[in-house]
Amino acid sequence: MPDQDTAVFFEVFNEIGIIEQLSRALLEARLPGGLIAPHFTVLNHLIRVGDGRTPMDMARAFQVPKTSMTHTLKGLVSHGLVEFRSNPDDGRSKQVWLTDKGRALRAAVIADLGPDFERLAAGFDMERLAAIRPVLTDLRKYLDTARD
Amino acid sequence: MPDQDTAVFFEVFNEIGIIEQLSRALLEARLPGGLIAPHFTVLNHLIRVGDGRTPMDMARAFQVPKTSMTHTLKGLVSHGLVEFRSNPDDGRSKQVWLTDKGRALRAAVIADLGPDFERLAAGFDMERLAAIRPVLTDLRKYLDTARD
DNA sequence: TATATATGGTCCGATATCGCACAAAATGGA
DNA sequence: TCCATTTTGTGCGATATCGGACCATATATA
Fold this sequence. Notes:
2 copies of one chain form a homodimer. The first copy, chain A, has a two-stranded antiparallel ribbon with strand order 1-2. The first copy, chain A, is mostly helical. The two termini of chain A are 27 Å apart. Chain A contains 6 helices and 2 strands. The radius of gyration of chain A is 18 Å and the shape is globular. In chain A, 28% of the residues are buried. The longest helix of chain A is centred in the N-terminal third of the chain and has 25 residues, at 4-28. At the A-B interface, helix 1, helix 2, helix 5 and helix 6 of A face helix 1, helix 2, helix 5 and helix 6 of B. The structure holds a DNA duplex.
């Protein structure tokens, strides 16, 4: 029988897993053909933390194998949404930079999601949602640092 | 520029996506070889809502294509964790039942996660985590009904 | 400096995910 | 009842994910 704290984690992670699947479906419904959630996630990450990250930086940030990141980036490059530049500080690695097309696509997808979110906001208490955001942010940061 | 409500949804879904990836890594580190998160998720779902669901029931519950569910269930059957029974009410479909081995495995994995969660609980304010759980549950239910 | 070890990225093969098409069975309407 | 439509599950091919191996480069150590 799990104790109280572990039960809370278990239940929270379980709910988060289901919500992630549902929200991913919402997102992918607005992505152009050939792009899936991981592609958008990378574009978004590069906006949030800034251009010029290396593939390994992002593989670690998303806790995915570096081979998966290679593959995702290859898709983004082939669509002209990001570009590689050599890393002046480290000959082994590359930097990933957004193209104008990449920035524009991210903005367009977010704009397209607007009506979806508007519709959802009409049926849910947004005060409660806004209230949990800081906790989720802290939890995300905590889990991110707690893995070693 | 997205309005306030859509921004909240966007940020919450973004945090949830990252937390899901991190928590999935925690889970899969405790699963025996050959099993990945979707396998465990199915076992867990069958405990939560009860045995005897059909593959389509679960594909809908997880918002996953039915072909993906077929594949996941095939893996669980091959490991002896669930079994199919014919559906007396509908000749097209099957029912999925947990085996003793399946129930035991789920319990063992949860037990193995205990220490991980204990360690995490030591560094995070569990009051705040417990407080967001009902909101996540309501959000999950809301999103689940809002898709049509 | 010379060498061993660690790290970044890619290739390759195995498994997972998913859209499409199909067959079997159920449902609904004439 | 008959037939069209819907629904459930699976086979198949294309893409995604991931572990292991590998090379190039950086870092640590003697």
